[in-house]
Specification:
heterodimer, B: Beta-Lactamase, 3 domains, seven-stranded antiparallel sheet, 11 helices, globular, Vacuolar fusion protein MON1 homolog (chain A), FUZ/MON1/HPS1_longin_1 (chain A), Mon1 (chain A)
Chain lengths: ~475, ~475
Amino acid sequence: MISSEEYSENMEEAQETDISILVSDVNNIAIEESEVNKSISENKPLPSSSEQSNSYENLFDQLKGHNKHIFVLSTAGKPIYTRFGNENQLASLFGLMLALMSVTQDSNDTLQSICCGRTRIVFVNKDPIILVGVSQRSEPYDQIKKQLIYVYNNIISTLTLTQLKKIFLNRTNFDLRRLMSGSERLIDKLITFTENDPGFLLDSISCLQMPSNSRDKITQTILTECSKIKNLVFGLLIAQKHIISIVRMKKYSLQVSDIHLILNLINSTESFKTAESWTPICLPTFDSSGYMHAHISYLAEDCQACLVLLTIDHDLFFTLSEAKRKITEKMRRNDCLQAINDAIIRQPLSLARANILGLRHLLYKIKNRSQHWCPPFTLPYNTDTLQQNLMSVYCSLISQMNFPGRNLKVIYQQLTSETIVAWATDEVELYMCFEPMVSKECATNAVTKLTQWMKKEEDSLFIFNIPMF
Amino acid sequence: MPTEVTVQNLYIFNSGLSKTEEDGANKILFYYPPHEDENKKVLNIGHIEAIICFTRNFNSTESCESLRTDKTLQVLYNPEPDFWMVITVSAACKSKSKSPESPDEPVYCTYNLQEPIYLAVLKHWYQTFQMTVGNMTKIMNDNDPDYLRLMLNKFYNKYLLSVDLSSHTFMDMFQGISFLPLDNVIHLYAQSFLNSIENTFQQVNFTMLLYNDSLVWSGLSKRQTQLVYSYILMWVLPEMVRDENIVKGNSLQQCLPNQLVGRFISNVWAVKTDDWSCDLGKVPVILLNDENDETFKSYRLVIYKAHKSIVCMFIETDYPLTAELYNNLDQFLGTKLHLLSEKMKITVEKALASKLYAERPAKFVYFNSMNLAIKNSIKTSNTIATTNKPSDFNISPESLRVLVDISYQHSCIQPTCSIMIKTSNDNWVAGRLCNSREIYIVLNQKLTKLNDVDTEIQNLCAQELGTIFFYD
């Protein structure tokens, strides 16, 4: 086993390796895998149940303790990733997953999910890889499925779909872990992100709160520099989990799930803070067939905002490096760096300012912009457990609102510890958490009052201007 | 878009019956459709066994409940150790404009299939089987697997023929009992009448009284009552309507010439029947479990009808059924039951006449899990339908599905809660749960404010359910 330190080192290496090296690596690996997996896939599942479950027992006692498992395997049954435990010890389990998938496929169908009490098991088949998610807390199926898609996207982002397919076309038995060393850590972090971030639940991004004129000035500065560079497609300025500004090439737009991947990459990699980096990255929703090249750097020692410039031209490093220098200089001159720092340090806007009776917390999403606002948690949600409970309440509420074939407009639900309201219009989605004994009249008024209040505040909370060049 | 639900298969198996890989077919106890390819049957069962085995890795305490694929939903029920019942349903969207590329390929919308409905059906069927035939493990141990196969075939083939599973919706989840609303005096009168039967005839262990399709009184426990009630509704009442006209030539009539006011209902469908003389027709044999020691005792179910009422009498199988007993029962019951039934008719009609409210654009279902009472305006009972015309709007399939969601949430998450949902067609669907009482309401009104919806619901509750208290 490789220790976690080595993992991160490997990761950095992998990030900086050119694709050509990766490709040659694939071709150089000799065929040495045994035929074990083939025999698994050929065996129809006729389990002599008692024997099998006995041999599993010890191992799976450990597995039952975790709330959420994610397994990734190839369609040949080779383990690729497991969130907990060691893939090699789980070989028999991977074999069983594959067998279950392939039996369903024989009848021209695709296995989706299994329900067993509070346990939900979800399967996603993305030939040549299979992803399996297990949740022990009766999470909604669609959320688990989305998590699996995120993990899949992360694998694509390091390899591209074209290359992934090519690898398995040449060698069905290929051990993908050889190419993934290092990105396991990114997947771990990504799964944690999907479990805690409202942006994942809402399919939206969160913006750094700042006065709109400051934001415009920053965007304008980036735009002026970027528009001069040929083949530059996207530019993003990021402060931790929040987006400050986005610019884009005409006709192209950046999807939320791709932004989440970029955010995860940046927030999980410490080395970006010390040196500017040049990384190949595939944005699966934008174009899963090829790499883009990302110039990633923090603006300055005294301003911890990260600038990401994405291009399709792999020779553009020095041009982008120069552009970044100019952007930073210009921003320093016109006080943008100061504005960013102020915004980062500033106490985030509190919901208390809206002064709405009985309202404890909310999620506010602007539908057509895919942006949301999640105010800081306040009393009584002052512990991690309580916050997580609230998030899972939101999670089931969001899933209920958007369940296929339902299209609900309002949900009002009194629970034991809170009253929750989901309210969807053509423009916004609102998920509100009230005191448990709030009156219906009060809740209705809160929606109106909040909508009015948000009109005043939204300029600083959301990005309304995403200019093109 | 309307959804077309089809039952792909329904099977019952016991993994313990197959020792080697070759004799996989031995596991099968019942399989529908019967003409399915043998290998396919074994393969399907093998698949489900693998799923069950796989899920044990992650949850060893609860049993596997359902499995979804792109095209189907499979619901599993594990009523006795090693015995599994599985139903597979699929749903295709009936779209008006079919895609030009593949006009024959249906569009699947399995997300419209809901587990709780089918799980409730499987459970109910199993319990009815248990009541009319017995415990599967016991039948297999006392006889052999082939005998169990025969019994299961008799039972499920009959049920599958008479029930349209694809039309099952929200209402089928409760298997509730519709009680006849009576004033205290009549109710006591009915109760004392039933007590006098049990006292006069040693053989009669329990009695049950129905007026039309509503229950008046039952001496059985609530679970037993629920099963017997649904059995009567399914097999006795429809049959009765059918042979009301051919009573004259009935051989039973000839044996018991004195039957003037009332008559015995015989030859009711059951897997196990019993008779003492073929002239008197067969009566069903029913197994009722003793609540205390979990053992089953078998009883003959003798049904007697007069006017609009029926009395069900459970007679222990130790006592013989004789023409003399029939005659005595007939003499004792006939006039009394007829009089009682007429009294009930008067009170019911009086109650209905005084209850002429303004029609509300709303439908409701009330279910009390303490006594399994159900009251609703979706499926109207015969007794009430005669005078009360149902509201003139139909609940959309979407609203029905939302109701299932609400009730499922009730059952597994919250002990007390209240929920209101506005659907895409601007109907409001609401559910409240308190003290084991559940009420579900669909409002066909364009309301925008939560408190207006709430007021509407409160008015409805006050009108229909009077004094029943609901936490707000």
